[in-house]
Design a protein that fits this description.
two-stranded antiparallel ribbon, 12 strands, ten-stranded mixed sheet, 248 residues, 35% helix, alpha+beta
């Protein structure tokens, strides 16, 4: 398991969250992790936000896609991890946010099962809940299926390889969209997106509330019109019957 490193995104002032994720990892006998200091959106000045967010009026919403400072900071935090990962010797990164919570044992067989399915140059494998995926699994291991994902919106637990990390940095800095807009990363960065069904890692919502506010749903849909007009309608007609949707 030396081919990947685990990175945990955590604000220094969130000590209880740090203790919580350490406890979660210890239960799984996971030791090869390091903390990466998250960026505090509450401390970002407007001038900083202006520099770090995209304002391409021809393609993207000129008002920062209505993202809050917290959402921009979260995207920047994941980009910070990608840069650290790309400066390392590792082939893959396993990224957790500090409110991640395991629902099952992350056993060695499951780790190997996930790693053997890294077959593409640019790929992400989600351990979190999936919104939409193909019902026919690509691979199976006991109770778990390895499935191709078309949409997911949680960034608290996922594997990523080097090319995918480079693609997201290139696309999303300055920040165009939120850290967990995997639909957009799949379409515009050419990243192959996969996940586990059932999902392995949830968010600890009882102990902790999110510190990220959402100004508008536009940050999830601001690129959809371009894509739908060009491709999505044709593709959906052919593939809709093959999909399983998990929408809350």
């Amino acid at each position: 398991m030396k081919k990947y490193q685990i990175y945990i995104l955590n604000l220094k002032r969130h000590k209880n969250r740090r203790k919580n994720i350490i406890s979660e990892l210890e239960k799984q006998n996971i030791k090869n992790y390091e903390f990466v200091d998250a960026i505090d959106g509450n401390r970002l000045k407007k001038s900083q936000l202006d520099l770090m967010t995209c304002k391409n009026e021809k393609i993207f919403n000129p008002k920062n896609t209505n993202m809050s400072a917290g959402q921009v900071a979260c995207a920047l935090g994941h980009i910070k991890i990608y840069k650290k990962f790309l400066n390392s010797k590792f082939e893959l990164a396993l990224i957790f946010e500090d409110d991640a919570m395991f629902l099952d044992k992350f056993m060695e067989k499951l780790k190997k099962f996930i790693l053997k399915n890294f077959k593409y140059d640019s790929q992400i494998i989600l351990l979190s809940k999936l919104r939409e995926f193909y019902k026919k699994p690509i691979d199976k291991l006991k109770n778990y299926e390895f499935v191709e994902v078309t949409d997911a919106i949680m960034s608290h637990s996922y594997f990523i390889n080097r090319n995918a990390a480079e693609s997201i940095i290139s696309f999303n800095y300055p920040v165009k969209t939120v850290a967990d807009n995997f639909f957009i990363f799949r379409i515009y960065c050419g990243i192959k997106l996969y996940g586990l069904n059932p999902f392995l890692v949830d968010q600890e919502n009882k102990k902790f509330k999110t510190s990220i506010t959402n100004k508008s749903d536009l940050n999830k849909i601001f690129l959809w019109k371009m894509y739908f007009h060009k491709k999505k309608n044709r593709i959906l007609k052919k593939r809709l019957k093959k999909l399983i949707s998990h929408y809350d």
